[in-house]
């Protein structure tokens, strides 16, 4: 497992892979497989968020809860789905907010957010795997111990990172972040159940860029390139 992690992350997270909770997590994932359960994302994509966004390139963290649990959806980036897959409702609302927040933003025809990740946006889920068809099924497996450590390490090792926390679950992670060193942007979750309660109009993307520019850093280009036929 540790060998699948990008080197800059491995340097600060490598010791986690020998801890009892992670050993137990590996046993639980193997048991799922042995029992014939399909899990998402595929093994090669479990640490995709880290591999697409090295620690030294990190600018922004967008925290999700759980990978998508449908066929071919999850690929290791929170809120993102693979090209050719129907855009999920929360991501549709994210795009809708972008279209009013960022001048000229054109809603993409796919849901692959890899271009954000490659610019330094860590698309981190609290759990990195899920059983097919069963949301939150790996929530108690130990992943949150790992990803809480990730958030703490970012807080300790970096400065000026923008954390975008949507909904109560993500906002509870604020206690892991040194708010004297970092920036937190909060709003309701983009889910259809809560987007109308303050996500729409919250302008997280322009606020993020304002912070980055103010600190002399490059703003994120939130526009996603269209999928061409």
Q: How would the global form be characterised?
A: globular
Helix content: 25-40%
Span of the ends, CA to CA: 36 Å
Mean pLDDT: 96
Order of helix and strand elements from N to C terminus: HHEHEHHEEHEHEH
Low-confidence parts: none
Tell me what portion of residues adopts beta-strand conformation: 5-15%
Number of helices in the DSSP assignment: 8
What strand order characterises the main sheet? 3-2-5-6
Number of strands: 6
From the alpha carbons, calculate the radius of gyration and give it in angstroms: 17 Å
Question: What would you call the structural class?
Answer: alpha/beta
The description of the largest β-sheet is:
4 strands, parallel
Would you spell out the secondary-structure blueprint of this structure?
Elements: H1 7-13, H2 20-34, E1 39-40, H3 48-52, E2 60-64, H4 89-101, H5 114-117, E3 121-125, E4 130-131, H6 143-157, E5 162-166, H7 167-171, E6 183-187, H8 204-214
Describe the structure.
It is a single chain. The protein is of the alpha/beta class. It has helices at residues 7-13, 20-34, 48-52, 89-101, 114-117, 143-157, 167-171, 204-214; strands at residues 39-40, 60-64, 121-125, 130-131, 162-166, 183-187. The protein has a four-stranded parallel beta sheet with strand order 3-2-5-6. The protein has a two-stranded antiparallel ribbon with strand order 1-4. The longest helix has 15 residues, at 20-34. The mean pLDDT is 96.
């Amino acid at each position: 497992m540790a060998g699948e992690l990008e080197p800059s992350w491995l340097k600060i997270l490598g010791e986690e892979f020998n801890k009892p909770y992670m050993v137990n997590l590996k046993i639980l994932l193997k048991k799922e497989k042995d029992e014939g359960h399909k899990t998402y994302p595929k093994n090669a994509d479990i640490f995709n968020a880290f591999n697409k966004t090295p620690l030294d390139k990190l600018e922004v963290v967008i925290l999700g809860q759980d990978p998508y649990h449908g066929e071919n959806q999850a690929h290791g980036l929170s809120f993102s789905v693979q090209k050719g897959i129907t855009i999920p409702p929360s991501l549709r609302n994210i795009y809708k907010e972008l279209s009013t927040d960022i001048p000229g933003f054109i809603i993409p025809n796919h849901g692959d957010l890899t271009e954000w990740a490659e610019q330094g946006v860590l698309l981190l889920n609290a759990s990195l795997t899920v059983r097919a068809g069963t949301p939150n099924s790996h929530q108690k497996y130990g992943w949150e111990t790992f990803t809480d450590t990730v958030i703490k390490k970012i807080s300790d090792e970096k400065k000026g990172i923008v954390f975008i926390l949507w909904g109560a679950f993500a906002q509870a992670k604020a206690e892991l972040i040194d708010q004297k060193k970092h920036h937190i942007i909060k709003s309701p979750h983009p889910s259809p159940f809560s987007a109308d309660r303050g996500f729409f109009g919250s302008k997280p993307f322009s606020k993020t860029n304002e912070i980055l520019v103010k600190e002399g850093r490059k703003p994120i280009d939130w526009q996603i390139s269209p999928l061409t036929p």
